[in-house]
């Protein structure tokens, strides 16, 4: 009877172990019976229960090995760009020229103003050259050259070493002469004619006749029947004829008695 009772008890424990193993496979938790058993009996029951479990359910499949999580790629940081920006700014700061002193700033402004003035004068001169050569029909006024000459002379006076402004002022003056030349020539011809008339009126009582001849009235003639070389030299000295002839741009002064002629060369200042 005791043997039968022990077998019945072992079978019961085996079935209990099977049920407990199935619960473990299904993820359920089964509380162990509070009845305490002997160690030998528990080992036998566990062996029987293990033998009765199908091979597929004898042990739980190992959990899938977790794949190693790839380390997150470091995001591009803005620090390099910031560093580059700082490097660029530092380079710009080091390459930037030092600030100018007040004197240097004033000199730079004066030079820039002079460059603009010279460029303006060059453009005015070029316009006049185009008009002279027929490439332009727009004349350049005399006042424009005169105003430019004054401005250049002021710049040259401010800096005596400024030869560019002085040379360009001379070019503006020559342009004025060229513009005025036709009028000046007409006026000079008229002035020479007037001079001969006035001298003739003054010397009429002495039997002297004064007249002009040649192209543009370039020669003044003093004619008297009593004219001699000594008289011609006396007239030249006393009446200051050579100085007057030079100021009126006469080329020659001729003294004659109708038979002989003595000529005073105004450019050479010599009577022969």
Characterise the protein shown here.
Residues 23-39, 49-74 and 76-80 have low confidence and may be disordered. Strands 1-2-3-4-5 form a five-stranded mixed sheet, covered by helices on one side. It folds into three domains: 2-52; 105-182; 203-271, no CATH class. The chain has helices at 2-25, 39-52, 79-95, 102-132, 142-158, 163-202, 229-238, 241-247; strands spanning 209-213, 219-223, 252-256, 261-265, 270-271. It is rod-shaped. It has 272 residues and is an alpha+beta fold. Helix 4 runs antiparallel to helix 5 (142-158) and helix 5 (142-158) crosses helix 6 (163-202).
Report the sheet with the most strands, covering strand number, pairing sense and barrel closure. Answer: 5 strands, mixed
Distance between the first and last residues' Cα? 188 Å
Instruction: Find the count of extended strands (DSSP E, 2+ residues).
Output: 5
Radius of gyration, in Å, reads 64 Å
């Amino acid at each position: 009877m005791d043997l039968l009772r022990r077998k019945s008890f072992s079978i019961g424990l085996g079935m209990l172990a099977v049920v407990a193993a199935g619960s473990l496979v299904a993820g359920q938790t089964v509380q162990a019976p509070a009845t305490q058993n002997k160690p030998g009996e528990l080992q036998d029951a566990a062996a029987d229960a293990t033998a009765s479990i199908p091979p597929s359910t004898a042990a739980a499949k190992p959990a899938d090995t977790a794949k190693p999580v790839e380390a997150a790629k470091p995001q591009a940081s803005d620090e390099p760009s910031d560093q580059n920006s700082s490097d660029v700014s530092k380079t710009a700061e080091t390459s930037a020229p030092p600030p100018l002193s007040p004197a240097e700033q004033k000199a730079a402004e004066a030079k820039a103003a002079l460059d603009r003035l010279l460029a303006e004068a060059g453009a005015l001169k070029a316009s006049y050259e185009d008009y002279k050569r027929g490439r332009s029909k727009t004349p350049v006024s005399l006042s424009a050259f005169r105003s430019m000459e004054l401005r250049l002379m002021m710049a040259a006076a401010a800096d005596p070493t400024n030869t560019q402004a002085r040379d360009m002022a001379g070019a503006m003056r020559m342009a004025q002469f060229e513009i005025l030349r036709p009028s000046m020539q007409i006026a000079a011809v008229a002035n020479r004619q007037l001079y001969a008339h006035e001298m003739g009126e003054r010397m009429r009582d002495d039997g002297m006749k004064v007249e002009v001849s040649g192209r543009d009235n370039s020669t003044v003639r003093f004619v008297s029947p009593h004219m001699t070389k000594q008289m011609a030299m006396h007239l030249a000295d006393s009446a200051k004829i050579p100085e007057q002839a030079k100021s009126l741009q006469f080329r020659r002064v001729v003294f004659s008695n109708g038979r002989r002629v003595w000529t005073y060369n105004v450019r050479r200042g010599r009577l022969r």
